[in-house]
Amino acid sequence: RRIHDLTLQKKNSPEQFQITENSVTFWPSFGSKTDSDNHHQAGWHLKRNKTKNLNAVFWVKKLLETSQSRRSARQDLVSLFITTRGIVRDASRAIIAGWIKSCFKEAGIGASPGSIRAAVATDQFSIQGRDLDEILQKGNWRSRQTVFKHYFKEIAMPKEDIQRPSDYFQCI
């Protein structure tokens, strides 16, 4: 999904956020690039992954636990992502993108946060043979032409079977 879509994740009500031992579900607030009067992006259902570094359930719980003391400073704070220093407020798209860039740099990944959407879409379609409609929904795209024109890239086949985080993501 888009980085901006992460700013739409709220944790204040069961209608927008549910977490169990095996999954975390988000119903993003209205405001995605493709949201309109007759279209709203699908919910996000992320399943538990056996690999801790890829386990969204573990990391969302850790995020909430770690940020609890900052969150208590403001009762009206409902965003999943909040600032980590300075005035306590919702984290902006730019702040979240900075966090992702830092993680990529630390992991030795020389790509922009937005380029991950293209890589995942290409992998899902070209290598895994997933249905294009499923890819459109998971990526929150409305146009096949947009995906083919701007996101699908030529890639080399992986030499070994790899575990993909996208296998643990389901639109609902």
From TrEMBL:
Residues making up the signal peptide according to the UniProt record: none
Claim: Transmembrane is one of the keywords in the record: no
GO molecular function: DNA binding; RNA-directed DNA polymerase activity
Gene Ontology biological-process entries: DNA integration; DNA recombination
Domain of life of the organism encoding this protein: Eukaryota
InterPro entries for the chain: DNA_brk_join_enz, Integrase-like_cat_sf
Keywords associated with the record: DNA recombination, Nucleotidyltransferase, RNA-directed DNA polymerase, Transferase
Protein name (Swiss-Prot/TrEMBL): Putative reverse transcriptase-7
